[in-house]
Structure formats: structure tokens, C-alpha cells
Amino acid sequence: xxxxxxxxxxxxxxxxxxxxxxxxxxxxxxxxxxxxxxxxxxxxxxxxxxxxxxxxxxxxxxxxxxxxxxxxxxxxxxxxxxxxxxxxxxxxxxxxxxxxxxxxxxxxxxxxxxxxxxxxxxxxxxxxxxxxxxxxxxxxxxxxxxx
Length: 147
What we know:
The chain is mainly β.
């Protein structure tokens, strides 16, 4: 068997390393699968401003209940209430897509208007200020519209 000189050994080693890299990319120990999507929950009852039932996904993001409003556009609203025998979550936030609406108005113990950035982009989470509702608040009215 012929012996390889230094240059040939380096070239052969580089070729072998590249082949192993390409062949084994999917099995590297530090490659992690993406986290699973959050499990949907139903902490608050939802009704359209007209009284009809609606179903916006709700998820927990740490200790914040996230109501997913990414599918909304134009103008509309929803009324949220805690389910019978439960309390309000510590924190409530709404996930919206920039450019789909202009403002999100929330009425509870106080009124707050949350502007939504114009233009497209990744969804954003709008967290309610702490004083917008209390344990005695019966419902929150959420209304969205263009600017």
C-alpha cells in the first residue's frame, strides 16, 4: 500500500471531515427540537359585542394569559369574563399582528387604548396595565379598529 505524503494526508483528512459533517448534521448532540406549541386553555369566556359566541385561542405564557387575536382585522370587539367560580388571571395580554388593526381599546375598571404598529411583521403581545381590572371586575370589553 502506498504511503500518503503530508499534503495528501491533509487533503484526505479535510475531505473525510467534510463528508462526516454533511452525513451527520441531523444527529449532532447539541441540535435541539423546537419547543412544542403552547397548550390551549379556556380561562375566560368570550362573547362578541353582539352577544354571539366567539373562540379566540388562549394560552399561558408564564403567568400571563395570552388571548390570541392574530386573526382579527378591520373593526370588532369581544367581551371577556372569568369562567364561573374562577378569578381573573394575574396578567392578561393580547397577541395581535401589526398592520391588521390600528388600536385596541380595553374597558374594565379603567379605559386604556393600546396602539398597534402599522406595517407587517411578527405578531406582538400587548400586556394590560395592572389597574385595568380588579378581582371585582365583572368583565372586560375589548374593541379594535383602524387608527
